[in-house]
Specification:
alpha/beta; single chain; 569 residues; six-stranded mixed β-sheet; elongated
């Protein structure tokens, strides 16, 4: 394999070859800011997944290093994210009380990675186009609601037995009926965290509000011995690099995890590609979606052997990396290395982190996931539009359904169904030719044809496919008695399938039986090839087909001359 090909498959090689010493300072600063913001996120997001915070830290190390080394984006920071951890919790909710729950979790991480690598290897970079923006807005809004509500019991200090096996709505029902068990000290710690985060945001967006909001309450916990008053702490966190653990492959477990793994693999890639392209608009880097698929997949495959959760690109950490000067993928790799150093040196101090503080971070984060600006835009475009329906249905299903992967699949299926509904109307314009000076072509657009005309131009546009073929046939049929000569103007037709070709053939026969003539103008070479293969050119007659020419209206002018000749016969 040539050096160029190897560098394309392993992007870090090209980065090292072209690396400039002056960029190292910027990458280190970018990495350090990512660590400051990321540490509380890694721990908090692990709680969303229903596991010990240490697994979030492990993911923040391995996923960041592998994802940056093999992904396409220079600034994307891979690791645990709120949406992916919520999907993970949903997929694992039935299994968390089993003795092999963690083996199943790491197996699912491996499966997510394999699926993503396969998507990249067979170049399915366009697969994310099937997840519409409005479905993603609805999903994140629903996810934000679930994340916030899921932390209310920890925020209030209300203990719930077997809470990991309960849905969020079941938890809320329990909380409402047990509000008298609220621990004021726990509530105070949680509120302190949120207030600090709000203050930090107001002072400067660059302040690590989450980290400060977790550290400050620790002093009060130690000073007033709040642990004895019911304030739960994170507890001991193992120090050291993530240990290598063999993934336990089991056929029955693979079948159980497949649906959840598929949903996570899709949403994970949507997150990663969306973030990468968003930053690339500023850096002008060309993003290779298929390579990013492979990078994300490898981060999950490798991570599975180091006790990692499924991971994806993080918008907040990637944006912080870019804003604070991260130039190359080395910033992402260094962020993982720095988290490992923190874990080795400072893990014993993490035991004092209050669970209520992390719950406060998650409630604040969950609220932030509800993109009020985008929701208003969608509603403004039409409360009952396809986009609006897809957004609200996805959001509600995320909140109500016990399995979030079903909500994702339903949202995608609904957006596709609504798209097909919106596009099953054939784009047709009716034009009546008027006499201009000399050879000038004047076409007057009309909504309907009230009286019979000598020549009627029917302009077809866009992609004529099976979804709109019935409508195309019906609308053409309704025009049979409106003219003697019809010109199908196809300058703006991008492609046509056999179902629509069949509709045109029926129209040709009906026009002929009615004693009329059908002419086609503006035919592109690729469309003409389809006409020949389907036999439509024979049905119409070669003398009635006019190819698209460079000169504007040239093909239409030729078609009109042929129409006049047909009328004079």
């Amino acid at each position: 394999m040539s050096g160029f090909a190897l560098g394309k498959r392993i992007p870090i090689i090209d980065t090292i070859r072209a690396y400039r010493k002056g960029d190292l300072k910027h990458d280190i600063i970018g990495a350090l800011t990512v660590v400051v913001v990321g540490l509380p996120q890694y721990m908090a997001y692990a709680l969303i997944a229903g596991v010990n915070p240490i697994y979030g830290l492990y993911t923040g190390i391995i996923a960041a290093i592998i994802g940056s080394a093999f992904g396409s984006s220079n600034q994307l920071i891979t690791g645990p994210t709120n949406a992916i951890c919520l999907l993970t919790a949903s997929a694992m909710i039935r299994y968390m009380n089993l003795p092999n729950a963690y083996q199943m979790l790491f197996l699912m991480t491996f499966m997510v990675g394999v699926l993503q690598v396969v998507y990249g290897a067979i170049k399915l970079g366009k697969v994310i186009d099937f997840v519409s923006h409005t479905v993603l807005v609805g999903f994140t809004a629903g996810a934000g609601t679930i994340i916030a509500l899921g932390q209310v019991n920890t925020f209030l200090g209300i203990s719930i037995k077997n809470s990991s096996a309960m849905s969020t709505l079941e938890k809320m029902q329990y909380i409402v009926t047990h509000l008298n068990q609220t621990n004021p000290y726990v509530l105070g710690v949680g509120l302190m965290t949120i207030v600090i985060m709000l203050i930090c945001k107001k002072i400067s967006k660059n302040l690590p509000g989450a980290l400060i909001g977790i550290i400050v309450p620790i002093f009060f916990i130690i000073l007033f011995d709040l642990e004895k008053k019911g304030v739960k702490l994170t507890g001991n966190i193992p120090s050291g690099f993530p240990p290598f653990t063999m993934v336990q492959f089991n056929l029955s477990s693979i079948k159980e995890m497949l649906s959840g793994a598929f949903a996570i693999s899709i949403i994970g890639l949507v997150e990663a590609i969306s973030i990468s392209k968003s930053i690339a608009t500023k850096t002008r880097q060309k993003i290779d979606s298929n390579q990013e698929f492979i990078g994300q997949g490898l981060s999950n495959i490798v991570g599975a052997f180091f006790q990692c959760l499924p991971s994806s690109g993080s918008f907040s950490r990637s944006a912080i990396n870019f804003i604070n000067g991260g130039v190359s993928r080395l910033a992402g790799i260094l962020s993982g290395v720095f988290v490992a150093i923190v874990l080795i040196l400072f893990a014993p101090y993490a035991r004092y982190i209050p669970s209520a503080g992390l719950a406060g971070v998650l409630i604040y984060t969950g609220y932030g996931l509800i993109d009020k600006v985008e929701i208003k835009k969608v509603i403004k475009a039409g409360l009952f539009s396809s986009d609006s329906i897809a957004m609200w249905v996805t959001c509600i299903l995320v909140i109500l359904l016990p399995n979030l992967d079903y909500a994702i699949y339903t949202g995608i299926a609904l957006s596709i169904a609504l798209y097909l509904k919106d596009t099953n109307k054939a784009p047709i314009k009716l034009l009546i030719p008027k006499q201009g000076e000399e050879s000038q072509v004047i076409l007057e657009e009309v909504k309907t044809v009230e009286n019979r005309v000598d020549v009627l131009v029917i302009q077809l546009e866009g992609n004529l496919y099976f979804g709109g073929a019935t409508d195309l046939g019906e609308r053409l049929e309704s025009l049979i008695d409106k003219s003697s000569v019809f010109i199908l103007r196809m300058n703006h037709v991008t492609t046509i399938d056999l179902t629509s070709i069949t509709a045109l053939k029926v129209f040709v026969r009906n026009v002929r039986e009615a004693g009329g003539t059908l002419i086609i103008s503006g035919v592109k070479s690729e469309l003409n090839a389809i006409f020949k293969k389907s036999g439509l050119d024979t049905e119409i007659g070669g003398e009635n087909i006019f190819m698209l020419e460079n000169e504007v209206f040239a093909s239409t002018s030729n078609a009109l001359r042929r129409a006049r000749a047909a009328l004079n016969c």
